Amino acid sequence: MPADILTGYNVHTDADRAKMLGAMGKETIADLFTEVPEHLRVDGLLDLPPAMTEWQLERHIRELAGRNDTTIDHLSFLGGGAYEHHVPAVIDAIATRGEFLTAYTPYQPEMAQGILRFLHDFQITMGRLLGLPAVNCSVYDGATALAESAWMTCRITGKKHLLIAESIWVEYQTVLETYLRGRGVTIEVVRSDEESGQIDSDHLSECIQSETSAFLFQSPNRYGVVENMTQIGNICHDQGIMNVMASYPILFGLKKSPGDSGVDIAVCEGQPLGMHLNAGGPYLGIIATKTEFEGHLPGRIVGECNDLKGEDALALVKEEREQHVARHEATSHICSNQANLALRALIYLSLLGERGFRNVAELSARKARYLEQRLTAVEGVSRVFSGPFFNEFLLNLPRPAADVLATLREQKIFGGIPMTQLDPEAPDNQLLIAVTETKSQADLDHMVEVFAAAIEI
Amino acid sequence: MPADILTGYNVHTDADRAKMLGAMGKETIADLFTEVPEHLRVDGLLDLPPAMTEWQLERHIRELAGRNDTTIDHLSFLGGGAYEHHVPAVIDAIATRGEFLTAYTPYQPEMAQGILRFLHDFQITMGRLLGLPAVNCSVYDGATALAESAWMTCRITGKKHLLIAESIWVEYQTVLETYLRGRGVTIEVVRSDEESGQIDSDHLSECIQSETSAFLFQSPNRYGVVENMTQIGNICHDQGIMNVMASYPILFGLKKSPGDSGVDIAVCEGQPLGMHLNAGGPYLGIIATKTEFEGHLPGRIVGECNDLKGEDALALVKEEREQHVARHEATSHICSNQANLALRALIYLSLLGERGFRNVAELSARKARYLEQRLTAVEGVSRVFSGPFFNEFLLNLPRPAADVLATLREQKIFGGIPMTQLDPEAPDNQLLIAVTETKSQADLDHMVEVFAAAIEI
Amino acid sequence: MTPDSIYTKSRPGVSGASIVDHDFALGGSLDDLCAPEDLRDQPIGLPELSEIDVVRHFTNLSRQAHGVDNGPYPLGSCTMKYNPKRNDKLAMLDGFGKAHPHQPADTLSGVWDLLWKLQNGIAEITGMDAVTLQPAAGAHGEFTGLLVMKKHFEKLGEKRKTILIPDTAHGTNPASAAMCGFTCRIIPTNDKGLMDLESFEEHLNDDVAGLMITNPSTLGLFEENIELIAEKIHDNGSLLYYDGANLNAIMGLIRPGDMGFDVIHINTHKTLSTPHGGGGPGAGPCGVKKFLEPYLPTPVVRPVDGIPQPDYDRPEAVGKVKTFFGHIEVLIRAYCYILANGPIGLKTATENAVLNANYMKHQLGDLLPSVFPQNCMHECLLHGGSLEVRGADFVKRLIDFGVHPPTLVGAGCVHFAEEFDEAMLIEPTETESVVSLDFVIEQFRKVAREAAVAPYMIETAPHHASTAKVIHNEAAWMSIYEEPED
Amino acid sequence: MTPDSIYTKSRPGVSGASIVDHDFALGGSLDDLCAPEDLRDQPIGLPELSEIDVVRHFTNLSRQAHGVDNGPYPLGSCTMKYNPKRNDKLAMLDGFGKAHPHQPADTLSGVWDLLWKLQNGIAEITGMDAVTLQPAAGAHGEFTGLLVMKKHFEKLGEKRKTILIPDTAHGTNPASAAMCGFTCRIIPTNDKGLMDLESFEEHLNDDVAGLMITNPSTLGLFEENIELIAEKIHDNGSLLYYDGANLNAIMGLIRPGDMGFDVIHINTHKTLSTPHGGGGPGAGPCGVKKFLEPYLPTPVVRPVDGIPQPDYDRPEAVGKVKTFFGHIEVLIRAYCYILANGPIGLKTATENAVLNANYMKHQLGDLLPSVFPQNCMHECLLHGGSLEVRGADFVKRLIDFGVHPPTLVGAGCVHFAEEFDEAMLIEPTETESVVSLDFVIEQFRKVAREAAVAPYMIETAPHHASTAKVIHNEAAWMSIYEEPED
Ligand SMILES: Cc1ncc(COP(=O)(O)O)c(C=O)c1O
Ligand SMILES: Cc1ncc(COP(=O)(O)O)c(C=O)c1O
């Protein structure tokens, strides 16, 4: 390895290597690999491009990045589980600090109180937001949060029949099925009301069986329709099953918390809370439940304890649930989680505070209402369902959504998600539109204008 | 001030203000401003745009940023005092850490050893690079470094006649004149040799008078030509004057340090050492000189001293030179300097190390040679001067440079600087081209191709 | 002292962010949203701080954390190598960060191209034929791989329900297997630290879907019998799963695919230098041999008409393990890492990782003898039994000297069999220089010397950390560490 | 202990960056560059470290620094307010950062537009007619403004050579004046803390080019006689210069231009929230009344055919004070600050800055009486004379309690007259909440209480900082602080 050859991030000089080998009485690096069968080894080098200098790498990655259109060069009304709320600059500045970014899981609490503290405050904050105090340090994303929660209800109730609303994101349903297939859980789908787009509560009641562990639903659901969580909670509790609600965390700036409305386990995709869209990830899975169910939570939990001097300290607790202790009996396999994104969510909520958070929710809702009214005033355009919405709504168009979107794209507008993209079986004239606080009235008016023209073509 | 009104970064609630006023026995904020003449006050509010939310601001600034072309969307051969060397990502990551970015000048050494340490190491490192051990914590930029040094020579020698090479950047000359006009210094210009583009040493000798304090020159000079510093040093010292050289710090990866070649004061524009181009600033003025002249340096100097326990410590030293102590007799008025950029330069050099730094210099020089050879092979294109160059060279074109550049721009190439832009009196067919390590052979070949075509049009 | 909660700094009515739009009046009723009684009528109880107070709170919290950026972090099995800053910067470019996952696929060609190239890079490094980047972490990669295995047997019409797992396996292995509905059978470790072949063969029957192993194992040893094991597994119609958490020991030298593994996952946050983030996010790409490719979760990114893009037409797929396409921001870093190293850099990394571990093992040998005599790979397991203090106390004292403790049973996510109670698993990684290693070694020696003369100092350590020794949380560990009486 | 120099970590032959291009072989001779004897033949002696070691070195250095991000920083005259993170982010956008200053002007229209709008914003805030953004810092702004004044008199054919400066002026004022070739005459301060009018009038003669004052002064007091002063200056044919370092006390409330100032500079790193960076870079925009506009340095940015751009056609200009257009990256932040605040935010900032200073003054009044009775503005000057310890010692003890010391004579860049030897200049800034102020106040009180019972603790402070009290550097101060005998 001549000195001038690129060696990535390696730190030894030839002399260092010789010195270290010498200290061990070895001659070559090969002497360290005597246990590795020779004939299986890679012959020469891997077939990978030669090392790039930093400037070559930067240029290459910029070229790739530059080939993507984005929500900053387009006016975007995309939602469908990931939302373009503003991400305050403080979050990036703090979450990328080396101490946070390059630390491991806080297994050594004495060296990691800073990390344990933000995780603990994250748990407290999510507990408040969702009205359910038992919260873990996060799971992978909203969909896996729902899947993990589904299994929790099976563990808690000892039953393996699950009801799910047909109106959850199709992707969430797929993940749920993928997670539960091996667990021997059967899943049955509860219909939505054709008029309102809300859960058909009669059908829900009918579907509940003695073996049913829980009903899983989503609000706002995949039509953007806000469910009546109190009513659903009542039905479930009356008929002796648990319920799990997946939702959009910002909604609770305006609505009561799930825990105050009869929800047993609330899960959220935390992305709207200060995470960049990142072409889909990493995002943040949040699970909150009642204290009595805490022992069934997946993943890490930070708790208060003491140090040798009797002073307050924080540490990972209740590890008897986890894979490294309980192994095949663990509540979940999750080990690495989304800690750095939990930090982002906590910073986001700390920056906004009570008022700012409410305002984000309200602005999003009001702007969505403004756009909805103007768009449905266009000939032939109407909402698919009559149920209430938050900041996302589903429209019937007089033409295929894909055609309208293609026209909008020419004007650098991502006009929404054609329902067929989320659900191949959906009618091709349905369009799902999301609005956040970041859109100005001028943006919305511009959208209306271009949209109306596109409908007429 | 209703609670919901935007108040920028203010932190008090109405209740806080009332409480604080109450504690002082005051009723209104106005009670605090009784000393300020009422009739002079602003009537109402300043005529400024209403406060923007963070997302509105971000959009506005992105829109402005997006209207600039840059060296990442163009293939750039611009130099002329600011060079597109690669800036390693480590530098941004470290230099923007809050502790560094939001600290004041290290007036309280006990709270600022981290800052004092990097400033001290910056001084040491620049001392080594330039071969002159007395270095300050920086001045504003290369041009003011030259101007400050010019005055240093006047203070040191007690003389007020300066010689300057006509081949320094015109802008540097203007700054120098602007700085020295009030000091009663006369400035005389030394010619360059018409053939080589180097200083006409006979003319230099002739110009030296008994009242001459120093000769100021630049290498590489504004034609890209590298001067013979040893020879100039000899002439100056033989004739009893000082000399000051402005230069491009990366050159010293290949050449001996100025201090080893007879230079008394070396100044550099530090921008190539890890600073972004930033449309012109902030950059970094570096001054290095002999120990005997240290007392004449402008601005801050960090030195080693002790703490109460007798242990090593760092602090600002030799402050008797500075404005806050010496006031009108100070060596300079400079107070705030470019500390955060000195940090960048130190990180840059620490990352590259001996080998990396040399390689940046050599790659830049070799790539420049490759391009120069290929461009001068184009019919009608030749170098203006025969003297040696580092990574920037001046060409004679068969057509006005502006026309050729316009054609290159259509292909997203910034092909260099027309000499008329630097010096309105220059011939219009001269083009100054700079090359750094960041250009690939394919880039250079592409430039040649487009250039050749542009010449032929 | 543990730092204060952000709630102690909350000031009612304060909001660090101004959220307003003069075209849209706020505060009126939004009664079309839900029944009036479901509208929020009480504050949530969020922290209320000005922007500067938020910045200060978290800046100061960060100063009570220790990352690779702060100093040596020889935490065994965690591969705490340098996380290149250039990767952070490039991963956060707007062209990725501001892209919405539901954008039309043809507006994200840079993303697909990157993912496709990264898949190929990982396939080349691991010797597999196809890779999915969807899994969010190592455990998730395991889960994906096991689902693929399960699907394989479903397709064959076989109902194999057993997964064999060595007792040294990481806890996620049995946990993931259980999630897929497999039954775990645990294979003991022999006195050479390798999988007990006899026991393995005993357990091998037609219910065995596969064997899941880490190679090198979490004891830092290369499984020398891997060829034999692969042969026996395949002869039995079973599949061989590779837990790639320890790939850093062999990258560029020997490939799981060439050793006979059918399914693998890797942890980008270990081998491929993506930051651990205080616990995550990581990424756990899963690779398979060609015959298993149809089962990889939907979508896979692959060229259609020459242009890489997500392919949703996968009737055989196991489903989806999470939303969208994986942890893009993390995966960009992994891709950058491979490119910045190139094949020579990657191979050198492996060599140096193994060199460093053996050097530590050798230099500490007199104090902390190696549990096993052979060469270790990227990490070494040292025996603390001859110390005057408990291993769990010993390592806490290292904190006072700026060294992050190595992995002990429980104090990390690795499980060791009982006989290794006092063992320490040390993984220096290749990015520690010999100066840094010598520093770490010296701190170990310093603590060992102190243990002989002042064990109390060690038993009560750390003394210079934000808190004294935290005691409460050991309870959970104790249950496996001390085999409680009750 | 002061942290180690990076040179202690240097390892010969190591380079953290791989600088290579396989198309261009390295290491051959480059003898066309200069005479062979001028080629480098010895190493420079640069630090040689791997990338991780560089990151660790500087990360850990940063932890021995204290910024506004870490805690209260009531350093008088320095306006250590919050530096918004959004400004850092936006200032570093590639559209600015990667733009070359020699690009054709029409490729930088976003830059020109921003500078033009910022000039207008500063003109509006200060009540001036034209602004140059070229100066690099406050002192540089002063220099620019003084050159403009000089040019003005040159044009008038007058040879005025005197600048009047109050004795409370910042050191840069006389230093800048001297650089322009002016002679400084110092005006004493009266017992109300204001400029002594009698002395002022005595000095006013036809050699006086101008009076340079800071209002509020560096004693934190508003110059109540400003109108009278302006009138006298103008009647004398002289000009009035405003050192805007203390603009934070009056922004949005009263404008220098309306008070009669002809030339001003401001410090963006004070009033407009741009970070101090451990000493710089700042920016020192200089504003003038219309009649002085022609003399502003080349180029000025202004609309030509409606499109803002740099105008080089300035035959009357004083020249240039630095290369290119000013500290763009800093100026972007200043612009963002103005926009994020709007007129209400800016005015509120002023109100709160003054409120905070008065509150501190009031709450500490019993211990540290205010030197002057009237309202202070954005900073207060408190008298430490009744303490049992020296002020210089007192403030060091604050470090142990997490508070950055206020400005003392010398321990900051402000000069006070001798009679204020024990005075402390405290500038909390508007971004400290009342909780933070109460915390700071409590620390002052704690130290004062300690001074009564254990002065030794204070004289030997700090006790919890990286070093003990640094002694050597006081030498320089002592020369003005104690009026040495020799
Ligand atoms: C051997 C082994 N397997 C699997 C894992 C789990 O990986 P992750 O934390 O990414 O889920 C780990 C992580 O520590 C590990 O060491
Ligand atoms: C009153 C006053 N004037 C001028 C200056 C000089 O400003 P700068 O450091 O930006 O050159 C300062 C800085 O401390 C100051 O306080």
Structural description of this entry:
- In chain A, 37% of the residues lie in helices and 14% in strands.
- Chain A is an alpha/beta fold.
- The C terminus of chain C is likely disordered.
- In chain C, the strands form 3 sheets. A 7-stranded mixed sheet of chain C has the order 1-7-6-5-4-2-3, with helices on both faces. In chain C, strands 10-12-11 form a 3-stranded antiparallel sheet, with helices on one face. Chain C has a two-stranded antiparallel sheet with strand order 8-9.
- Chain C is 35% helix and 11% strand.
- The structure holds pyridoxal-5'-phosphate (2 copies).
- The site of one pyridoxal-5'-phosphate has 15 residues of chain C, from helix 5.
- One pyridoxal-5'-phosphate binds next to helix 5 of chain C.
What is the element layout, followed by pairings?
The complex is a heterotetramer, with 2 copies of chain A (457 residues) and 2 copies of chain C (486 residues).
Chain A: H1 14-24, H2 54-66, E1 75-76, H3 89-95, H4 98-101, H5 113-130, E2 134-135, H6 142-157, E3 161-165, H7 170-180, E4 186-190, H8 201-207, E5 212-219, H9 229-238, E6 242-247, E7 265-269, E8 285-289, E9 302-306, E10 312-316, H10 323-326, H11 339-376, E11 382-383, E12 392-396, H12 401-410, E13 413-414, E14 417-418, H13 419-422, E15 430-434, H14 441-456
Parallel strand pairs in A: 1-13, 3-4, 3-5, 5-6, 6-7
Antiparallel strand pairs in A: 2-8, 7-8, 9-10, 11-12, 12-15, 14-15
Chain C: H1 51-62, H2 85-91, H3 94-97, H4 109-126, E1 130-132, H5 138-156, E2 162-166, H6 172-179, E3 183-187, H7 197-203, E4 208-214, H8 226-235, E5 239-244, H9 256-259, E6 263-266, E7 286-288, E8 300-304, E9 307-311, H10 328-363, E10 380-383, H11 391-400, E11 407-408, E12 423-426, H12 434-453, H13 455-459, H14 474-481
Parallel strand pairs in C: 2-3, 2-4, 4-5, 5-6
Antiparallel strand pairs in C: 1-7, 6-7, 8-9, 10-12, 11-12
Bound molecules: pyridoxal-5'-phosphate (2 copies).
